TrEMBL record:
This is Leucyl aminopeptidase. It holds the Pfam family Peptidase_M17. SUPFAM superfamilies: Zn-dependent exopeptidases. GO terms for molecular function: manganese ion binding; metalloaminopeptidase activity. It comes from Candidatus Nesciobacter abundans. One of its GO terms (cellular component) is cytoplasm. Residues 352-359 form the Cytosol aminopeptidase domain. InterPro entries: Leucine_aapep/pepB (IPR011356), Peptidase_M17_C (IPR000819). Keywords: Aminopeptidase, Hydrolase, Manganese, Protease.
Length: 506
């Protein structure tokens, strides 16, 4: 695959309303003098600005007298008080996310490498790496030089308004530059991991079986410089994971990932990894069945988040469990009416083999609490079609037994434009999955509706009373029917940036 490297230098002035005009070659300039970018790929920068609007910069007005360029504390993306540093990061994030494209399987690579604001051209631009750098040494040299660039001038103006002695001011500039260099690098890692999740979701199921998924996980561990990341593949599985996989020639894998950064209680992440969901004997209609290669988006997210924690050398303690199976119909497949035992020992009457996600998640939930000691557990799953009916492709469904956890997740979602809508849990919904012959059914009683809620109620039956738990149903948001400015393909990586934000703020 071809990687293009772009060196991008940002020069940014604050305080004006944005308008964009292309100027001389190799340079594009914002009118009203507020933002100037220098690059030999001007179109990409314009695209970056456009894309950034879609992930949260709607308003470019900033009050310079807020003094601190990098310390504006706001969680409201529509606020007028995004700091200079936050803006640069957003622009970079826009570039990184918006220029991603699935590497694909074409044997001829005759794609146009030129990109422009024309989105169809952008889609052809191929994978690229954007290298945004600030030259710290040079910037410091220029600090006292009249021939300073706009970026330093902006910093200098701001710093001189501060009531500090000259030496402190100089140190402050150095700190600012170091901080933004570090933070930009972090944004790069976040975007790379988001794009990694997207790549996995786009992959055809013959290129991403449970075994290949497990190999990819092991590869991450092997290639990681951070030795705190440990990944174990469990081949001998039981419970729902074994039952769901019985119809397929592909062997199930339970992927267990542990990362102990040292700080705080253990957070557990669970991701649904159905690498292809035919529905099993309760076969899905042929129309759009190809999209069922994406039924592992939850596991893709969770693996990407774990990679990100390792890449950024996080100080948090996070464990993850990803049950990976293929759900297929065959002579050995699980049958409607069968009663199975979950790993926890609870029995389940399987009324529909297409409600298989919960049959593997319940084991993963049990495992992460019993074996890995997670006190808070968050699961990601493309679980129900009902959530798409209710919320479409903008909001994911959130279910939780804890108000504070729920609020924190919603806030992280807002910061990342990955929106969550909390839906209810209630004992009367729970009754809808009672069974006459087993502990529970895997779907609700006919005609009672509430498919997403009863799926969550099912999962809750495997959550201990003292475990804080949230279930995020990403069936509508992981793989969308249309492209958007920051998703030129259909897979979104929805949840990776949200979860990283959440973990950083625990
Ligand atoms: Zn299914």
């Amino acid at each position: 695959m071809n990687k293009k490297i772009f060196k991008v230098c940002f020069d940014m002035k604050l305080d004006k309303t944005i308008s964009i005009k292309k100027s001389k070659k190799n340079k594009c300039e914002m009118l009203d003098g507020n933002i100037t970018f220098f690059s030999n790929e001007e179109d990409f920068l314009l695209i970056g600005i456009e894309l950034s609007k879609h992930i949260g910069i709607d308003n470019y007005n900033v009050n310079l007298d807020s003094n601190y360029l990098f310390e504006t504390e706001t969680n409201d993306l529509n606020s007028n008080f995004l700091s200079f540093g936050d803006k640069v990061k957003k622009l970079y994030e826009g570039l990184m996310l918006g220029s991603w494209k699935y590497s694909g399987h074409k044997t001829m690579n005759n794609e146009d490498s030129e990109a422009s604001l024309d989105k169809s051209n952008l889609a052809k631009s191929g994978l690229m790496e954007i290298n945004l750098s600030f030259d710290l040494e040079k910037s410091l040299l220029e600090f006292n030089n009249s021939n300073t660039n706009e970026f330093n001038q902006t910093l200098r103006d701001a710093i001189y308004e501060m009531n500090l002695n000259p030496e402190l001011k100089k140190n402050y500039l150095k700190e600012c530059l170091e901080k933004i260099t570090y933070e930009i690098d972090e944004v790069r890692k976040i975007c790379e991991c988001t794009n990694f999740a997207r790549e996995l979701v786009e992959m055809p199921s013959n290129f991403l079986t449970p075994s290949i998924f497990a190999e990819k996980a092991k590869k991450i561990e092997k290639e990681s410089e951070n030795k705190k990341l440990k990944i174990t593949i469990i081949e001998e599985v039981s419970g729902g994971i074994l039952e769901v996989s019985k119809g397929s020639l592909e062997k199930p894998k339970l992927i267990v990932c542990e990362y102990y950064g040292g700080e705080g209680e253990i957070l557990g992440l669970v991701g649904k990894g159905v690498t292809f969901d035919s529905g099993g004997l309760s076969l899905k209609p042929a129309k759009s069945m190809e999209d069922m290669k994406t039924d592992m988006a939850g596991a893709a997210n969770v693996l990407s988040i774990m990679k990100l924690l390792s890449d950024t050398n996080s100080k948090k303690n996070v464990v993850a469990v990803m049950p990976c199976v293929e759900n297929m119909p065959s002579g050995s497949a699980l049958k409607p009416g069968d009663v199975i035992s979950a790993m926890s020992g609870q029995t389940i009457e399987v009324l529909n083999t297409d409600a298989e996600g919960r049959l593997i998640l319940c084991d993963a939930l049990w495992y992460i609490q019993e074996k890995l000691n997670a006190k808070t557990v968050i699961d990601f799953a493309t679980l129900t079609g009902s959530v798409v009916v209710g919320l479409g492709e903008l909001f994911a469904g959130l279910f939780s037994n804890d108000d504070f956890l729920s609020e924190s997740l919603i806030k992280s979602g807002k910061r990342k434009s990955e929106f969550l809508c909390r839906l209810p849990l209630h004992k009367n919904y729970d009754k809808l999955i009672d069974s006459d012959i087993a502990d529970m059914c895997n779907i609700q009683k006919p005609g009672s509706g509430a498919g997403s809620i009863t799926a969550a109620q099912f999962l809750q039956r495997f959550v201990k009373k003292d475990t804080k738990w949230a279930h995020i149903d990403i069936a509508g948001t992981a793989y969308t029917s249309h492209k958007s400015m920051i998703n030129l393909r259909k897979s979104t990586g929805f949840g990776v940036r949200l979860m990283f934000d959440f973990i950083q703020n625990i």
